[in-house]
Amino acid sequence: xxxDVEKIRKDFPALNQEVYGKPLVYFDNAAxxxxxxxxxxxxxxxxxxxNSNVHRGVHxxxxxxxxxxxxxxxxxxxxxxAKSNSEIIITxxxxxxxxxxxxxxxxxxxxxxxxxxxxxxxxHANIVPxxxxxxxxxxxxxxxxxxxxxxxxxxSFKGLISHKTKIISVGHISNALGVVxxxxxxxxxxxxxxxxxxxxxxxxxxHREVDVQELDCDFYCFSSHKxxxxxxxxxxxxxxxxxEQMPPYQTGGEMIKSVTFENTTFNELPFKFETGTPNVAxxxxxxxxxxxxxxxxxxxxxxxxDDLLKYALKKLNNLDYLQIYGNSQERAGVISxxxxxxxxYDAGTIIDKFGIAVRTGNHCAQPVMDFLGTTxxxxxxxxxxxxxxxxxxxxxxxxxxxxxxx
Amino acid sequence: xxxxxxxxxxxxxxxxxxxxMDKYNYLIEMGKTTPIIDEKFKTEQYLISGCQxxxxxxxxxxxxxxxxxxxSDAVITKGIVNLLIRVLSNQTPEDILATDMEFxxxxxxxxxxxxxxxxxxxxxxxxxxxYALVYKTKKEQQN
Lengths: 406, 143
Ligand SMILES: Cc1ncc(COP(=O)(O)O)c(C=O)c1O
Hints:
The structure holds 2 protein chains of 2 kinds. The longest helix of chain A is centred in the first third of the chain and has 21 residues, at 60-80. In chain A, helix 13 crosses helix 15 (388-405). The two termini of chain A are 43 Å apart. Helices cover 41% and strands 17% of the residues of chain A. By secondary structure, chain A is of the alpha/beta class. Chain A folds into 2 domains: 5-30 and 297-405, Alpha-Beta Complex (Aspartate Aminotransferase, domain 1); 40-294, Aspartate Aminotransferase, domain 2 (3-Layer(aba) Sandwich). The model of chain A has no long low-confidence stretch (mean pLDDT 95). Chain A contains 15 helices and 17 strands. A 7-stranded mixed β-sheet of chain A has the order 4-10-9-8-7-5-6, sandwiched between helices. In chain B, strand 1 and strand 2 form a beta hairpin. In chain B, helix 1 packs across helix 3, helix 2 crosses helix 3 and helix 3 packs parallel to helix 6. The longest helix of chain B is centred in the C-terminal third of the chain and has 28 residues, at 115-142. Chain B starts with a helix and ends with a helix. Classes of the chains: A alpha/beta, B mainly alpha. At the A-B interface, helix 13 of A face helix 2 and helix 3 of B. Pyridoxal-5'-phosphate binds at residues 30, 93-95, 123, 125-126, 171, 175, 200, 202-203, 223, 225, 364 of chain A.
């Protein structure tokens, strides 16, 4: 493995800065990742060069922009091993992707009395859209329970399934706890019952290799910005047979074939779901991010990250005044913890002063926090550009917190 | 002491601190000594929204002055709200409404608090002024 973290760090300009006079330790990657220079350069060169609207003009720039835009779709398709470009919908982000499916699939397929299954550890983005569509259609939201470590209970899950279940939507990796969910097993069980499965891969795509055909999921979504690309771009993979049947989510320009005042015929996939001018620069920038990740290599990234996580867990487990959440067999990216009897907000305030960016609060996953009996946690989320030295610095900060409040 | 005099007192105290650590240690000390609110006030009704930690604030009138009490589940927040209480409590509603709380900026509290926390601070001040407004209106209605 020729993985050189010091060299990699140089690719990320934002890592090279001081806060409060100390070198930044960026441990808030689950919220958003930093961007490699190639991504930033791509944005600048797009706006300095081929900037123009896509899929519309016959003029030179528009064709260049459209080509670059569609090449990114190819890249994404290949990256997640989708069958065709029709299955790759460009959205604004993971939240937008989930709203698309909840609204389009939900409105089309849900009838009063139907059921949707999610899990107890979901991000609000994979709870609220389903809650709202269930309310609107008279359907019911059911929740796969978890144990105190964030492991979903598959036996209970089997019990929740009925002939009324229309879709199951679960996260690949929990953003609050870092637990990797048994999505293969969930998909297998669901498909035995002919129920489609949506995977919220906002964290999953960052820490695991994803092959949608091998996974056999029906929908998979994620955000570019958590995966080293620009903000404002998301992806929705959908199995073509479902996307074909689903009505457009939003309507307007770009997604139509012909419009008269009496009637409109919609464009074909994937454009049926892509209305209005997309974030062209962001999409092309995300293409650059994917190329960058491929060059480093996901297997190397995963093994480096897993090693770093193990190191951090070992160190943190030595501190007996820490409560660490999500002690699951398989975890990735995230360590969520509290100092016993110290409010996460108090701890986070002091850790911040050490130049360390961690997140405190409920991580947009209030139900799981309620379940764990806490209002929030401190979350250190790591990327492949973080180092053991940075983990050691976090430890120093935690010890200081203990000293100040203990 | 007037609000302005109290503000000056706090500013002077903070000017003795060399670094952020001293400042926070002081806030933590203050957080541990806040006049604890009666348990009956620790309900939704007295909760201030806009803070990452929970803050409960109650007020009552005594001899024409507003007495504030507060509590929080986070020590630093409790320290901050205690600082506000030190300056604003036991003052007339009119004086509370008139002050612009200059000291918050002067002691570098605002700059050291991230936007979400700063919002918490703003919400606390807003809530204290709201109480003052209520008492002022009540008084005027009685006259
Ligand atoms: C698991 C999970 N799902 C969904 C989202 C929402 O992502 P976005 O805000 O990019 O739409 C997040 C982001 O925090 C997440 O962690």
